[in-house]
Amino acid sequence: MTAAVAPAGVQRLAPAQAARWRALGERLAGIAARHPDAALASSLAAEDMVLTHAIFTAGLPLAVFTLDTGRLHDETLAMIGIVSQRYGRAIAVHRPDAAAVEQHVTLHGRYAFYESVELRKECCRIRKVEPLRRALAGRSAWITGQRRGQAVTRAQLPLDEHDPVFGLHKFNPLAEWSEDDVWQVIRALDIPYNPLHDQGYPSIGCEPCTRPIRPGEDVRAGRWWWESSDSKECGLHAGNVGKAAVGTRQSIAAPLRAGGTGLDNDPSESKT
Ligand code: SF4
Q1: How far is CA 159 from CA 49, 143, 165, 175, in A?
Q2: Which of 105, 143, 219, 252 has the fewest CB within 10 Å, making it most exposed?
Q3: How far apart are CA 35 and CA 230, in angstroms?
């Protein structure tokens, strides 16, 4: 197995972040050794770019894929080409079943997700969960960019766990990272990132379901903002909802730093 090699820029990191970066490389190398068929599910947001950079620069045989839901921002879709150009490795793209999307839109309209949680979850199921199930078929493990500090639903997030939803192992190697860790590493290592992070979007999903956040709001406040904060998972990480500890909400307060902040996302799609 190829050992993680420190990429250019690591010397610019503060000791704490340098240690986090080294530990991440070791953790990913360990995952690759035990689960060479594991894949990173990338939303193309900040955390996933850190993981992609770590995997590709270390030459790890871990796959990276994203879900093009059909409702993604153009800026998000552009990251696929940017990654390919930067690292010479492609991100696999999985899309929803066109007939299922068409049927849902015909029955409920293109903006049904605003009408009820049930219709929103059905849209996420068609555009995200089913394509994710296909992307994970035959794999023994997957990797996510989730962090504990992102939301009340993620406050108890373990570094690795059994995923009962998809029936395989799930690794969350950034679980202990802070928002600051993510951005220090991105800037020091010159990792490409979605420009929407510089426009008030710390968390980026589908275009109609994501808005910029206001100062003092938590990082996922802009995701499905019309819903209660303790149910805001799209089905990709459905197991998180049951673990959400009421009252443990962390104030991620995330005042947007000059130059941008950024955190998690979910993959999304285009404009069906
Ligand atoms: S986040 Fe995407 S998949 Fe989910 S309801 Fe919104 S448009 Fe549909």
Answers
A1: 18, 10, 17, 6
A2: 105
A3: 32
Domains in the chain: boundaries:
10-243
Q: What is the DSSP string of 48-61?
A: HHHHHHHHHHTT--
| CB 208 near ligand 1, within 6 Å | yes
Secondary structure class of 162 (helix, strand, coil):
strand
Whether 64 and 70 have beta carbons less than 8 Å apart is answered as no
Distance between CA atoms of residues 116 and 261, nearest Å: 30
Q: How many CB atoms lie within 10 A of CB 92?
A: 12
DSSP, res 21: H
Atom 4 (ligand 1) nearest CA: 124
- What integer pLDDT is reported at residue 234 of this predicted model? 60
Q: Give the nearest ligand 1 atom to 205 CA.
A: 1
Averaged pLDDT, 29-47: 98
Q: What is d(CA 47, CA 44) in angstroms, rounded to the nearest whole number?
A: 8
Do 268 and 128 touch, CB atoms closer than 8 A? Answer: yes
Pocket test for ligand 1, best of 43, 110, 120 (most atoms within 8 A of CB): 120
pTM, to two decimals: 0.84
152 or 181: which leads in pLDDT: 181
CA-nearest residue for atom 6, ligand 1, is 209
Which atom of ligand 1 approaches the CA of 71 most closely?
A: 7
Give residue 127 CA to ligand 1 midpoint distance, Å. 7
For this structure, is 234 an active site residue? yes
pLDDT of residue 216: 83
Which two three-digit tokens encode residue 247? 């009252």
